[in-house]
Amino acid sequence: MFSWDLLTGALVFGLLVGCFYAAVSIGLSVAFGLLDVPHIAHPAFLVVGAYGAWWLGQYGWDPIVAGLALAPVFFFLGVLVYRIYHATFEKRGSDAGLRGLAFFFGVAFIVEVALILAFGVDQRMVEAPYIGKSVDLTEDLRVPMRLLVGFAAALALTICLTLYLSKTFMGRAIKAVAQDQVALSLMGADPVRVKQWAFGIATAVTCIAGALLIIIGPVDPQLGRLYIGRTFCVVVLAGLGSMSGTLVAALILGVAESIVLTFFGASWAPAVAFGLLLVVLGVRPQGLFGR
Amino acid sequence: MNQRQSCTLARRAFLALAACAATLPAPTWAQGAPIKIGLSMSQTGPLGGGGKAALLGLQIWRDDVNAKGGLLGRKVELVVYDDQSNPATTPGIYTKLLDVDKVDLLIAPYGTNPTAPIMPLVKQRGLLLMGNFSFEVNERVQHDMWFNNAPWNDAVSWSQGFIEMGKKRGAKTIAFLAADAEFSQNLATGARNLAKHQGLNAVYDQKYPPNTADFSSMIRALKATKPDIVFVASYPGESVAIVRAVNEIGIGDSVKLFGGGMVGLQFAPIMESLGSQLNGIVNYNAWVPEKSMMYPGIADFLKRYAERAKAEKVDPLGYYLPPFNYAAGQMIEQAVTATKSLDHKTLAAYLRSNEHKTIVGPIKYGRNGEWANARVVMAQFNGIKDKDIEQFRQPGKQVILYPEAMKTGELKFPFEKARK
User: Fold this and answer.
1) Which of B209, B236, B240 is the closest to A269 by Cβ?
2) What does the alpha-carbon distance between residue B326 and residue B348 come to, in Å, rounded to a whole number?
3) Burial class of A70 by CB neighbour count within 10 A (0 to 12, 13 to 18, 19+)
């Protein structure tokens, strides 16, 4: 059943959900796109961030404030994880192929089990003034406030990270290490330190995105598995390492999913991500914004 | 005291202790090896929350029966493995339970999807299997030694009350929203057939992939079709997301009834989190604390369950699965005690031909090892406040509307008015 109202609604919801996809993918865009670390545990960290927001929520914290407050902790967690990965794989030159992937798979499973042991298997939700309420955009179009808040926070996060990477010294160093690690070493900079800093930032951003995740819907320890395909799809679709590309790719994915869901049936929606990926990689193998 | 004297004293003390031990009354169940009852139960994964609570119900039965001296004078032991809510793991687990652990009796895993893969195994080996809240799992296998503990039988028994109520209120159109998984689709198929039979026109019929996180677009599309009743067959995570989306976007003034087959709205953590957003929803349930469902023993069981649930951090109310798991244990207990046997065929014959007294009421089996008289209730959430788990222990919060014999209140409709 087609109607312009439904199409408008599908576009609006697609953009809102797409922005949320950008937020949950942007940390991976740094870790995988820029640093070439096969960070398959990224969605598991996302869920840890969501649980962190839930935990502080028990003491009356707003989920987004909780995410921001926990970001420094996640920064150091990211640094630690990268140090271990570097010492056990990168340094020995054995990070190529399946080994690095296996390491992060292991980390993801450990994180999942740790969450189950700590919090149990039940789903967790948060409460906030903007959850469960909606805004009337037009007479026929009511939009959940949680999606609007998620949209705004995701947009702010993406803009901040894009500015950080392009305008600051450390940001440019991170981009440099992504382009040519050896050249950076010859300039006297330590690529490992730059990479651990970048991985820390990626993990901190993931924590904030985790807070958005629990705003959007309930979380359980194994929710991360659902986001592995979607986040990697966004990053590859964007072109590895492109922050603005990540936002655009996520918006395309969100809108495509929403339109398919509204007019062709929800069962097709999960296939949209990989369908888009196949088309883009066939036409433009470097991704939409890759060089 | 020299060394020889101290040695003699030690020997005397040992002999005295041994004599004392010999005169102590031995536990009555120590006369033989324990009776092992094997099962897999989801402790992790999407069914983990319910699985843990269900297992606690069964453990309380085990402790009760052992306190009474066990079965046939033998202690009862549960051999339990976590199937991770993954149907692929259950055939391996049940093979291990039978061939390695050598269990005497079997109870099925919680839910339809983990149970379905073990049905051919138990049929092939001619084993008794006590079902555990699965739905139509024996429909194709037709195993004559299967006995479900759930209060439903066929798909009609599940959706009949819901659709009849809608029809009585003048409904002409219906919308379906169902997860694309075996259980939900079986349920939705039953509801579709019944709706067709009742002359209801399906204006929206949407399958969605399990674990869909946001339903805003779907609810908007559903609302545009202006249905009179909306039948939802969903799993816990999606049920929460659907309720949220409905509260945010609205479902339209045309809708008289909303709900039906939403799994999860029976679990205390979800009920507590959704709070007032539940008001007006009419949903299936197995047991609610209404006067018409207060069977002998249920109040005592729930009291003891609540104490242990707190310590074990599982569903604090435990209305949905734990009493029925306890009931499964009670039925095994009654069959073994009456037949004085562990022979599966003998026990199955007893279970088939007798009515069993349990804390969830009398159970008699009919076709396919399902209940002869289904007892699925349709209850409407009413006057629910936010952040108050204790309110759900009171009657009147989940008013029974169907079946007629158990009714404790009247339907409030239309839905938009009922949820205010």
Assistant:
1) B209
2) 18
3) buried
Contact yes or no for B149/B134 (Cβ under 8 A): no
Give the chain A residue whose CA is nearest to the CA of B46.
A121
Rounded distance, CA B264 to CA A169, Å?
51
B178/A contact by beta carbon, under 8 A: no
Q: Where are the domains of chain B?
A: 35-148+296-360, 155-291+377-418
Q: Does domain B155-291+377-418 have CATH number 3.90.226.10?
A: no
Which backbone phi and psi does A181 adopt, to 5 degrees? -65, -40
Testing the interface with B: which of A21, A115, A123, A135 to mutate, by most B Cβ within 10 A? A123
Strand segments, DSSP code E, in A48-194 are 134-136, 142-144
B252–chain A Cβ distance below 8 A for any pair: no
**A262 to B273: CB separation less than 8 angstroms, yes or no:** no
B176, B188, B244, B180: which is closest to B213 by C-alpha? B244
Spatial separation of the C-alpha atoms in residues B416 and B240, rounded to whole Å: 18
**Is B25 exposed, middle or buried (CB count within 10 Å of its CB: 0-12, 13-18, 19+)?**
exposed
Residue B358 three-state SS: coil
Q: Do A266 and B247 touch (CB under 8 A)?
A: no
Tell me, yes or no, if B352 comes closer than 8 A to chain A by beta carbon: no
**What CATH class is the domain B35-148+296-360?**
alpha beta
* Distance separating alpha carbons of residues A211 and A231, to the nearest angstrom: 16
Nearest chain A CA: its distance from B142 CA (Å): 31
Backbone angles phi, psi at B78, to 5 degrees: -105, 130
Is residue B211 within 8 angstroms of chain A, CB to CB?
yes
Contacts of B206 in chain A (CB under 8 A): 265-266
Q: Calculate the CA dihedral of residues B161, B164, B166, B171 and round it to 10 degrees.
A: 160
Please name the residues in contact with B130: beta carbons below 8 A apart, sequence gap of 6 or more. B105, B106, B107, B108, B147, B149, B328, B331, B332
CA distance A196 to chain B (A): 33
Task: Determine the Cα–Cα distance for residues B341 and B329; give it in Å rounded to an integer.
Answer: 15
Question: pLDDT tens string for chain B (420 positions)?
Answer: 444 444 444 455 444 444 444 444 444 544 589 999 999 999 877 788 889 999 999 999 999 999 999 999 999 999 999 998 889 999 999 999 999 999 999 999 999 889 999 999 999 999 999 999 998 899 889 999 999 999 998 888 888 999 999 999 999 999 999 998 878 888 899 999 999 999 999 999 998 887 677 788 889 889 989 999 999 999 888 898 899 999 988 898 999 999 999 998 999 988 988 899 999 999 999 999 999 999 999 999 999 999 999 888 889 999 999 999 999 999 999 999 999 999 999 999 999 999 999 999 999 999 899 999 999 999 999 999 988 999 999 999 999 999 999 999 999 999 999 987
Q: How far apart are CA A230 and CA B234, in angstroms?
A: 23
Contact A8, A192 (CB under 8 A): no
Q: Considering the entire predicted model, what is its pTM?
A: 0.80
* Smallest Cα distance from B94 to chain A, Å: 23
Measured between CB atoms, does B277 come within 8 Å of chain A? yes
Per CATH, B35-148+296-360 and B155-291+377-418 having the same topology is answered yes
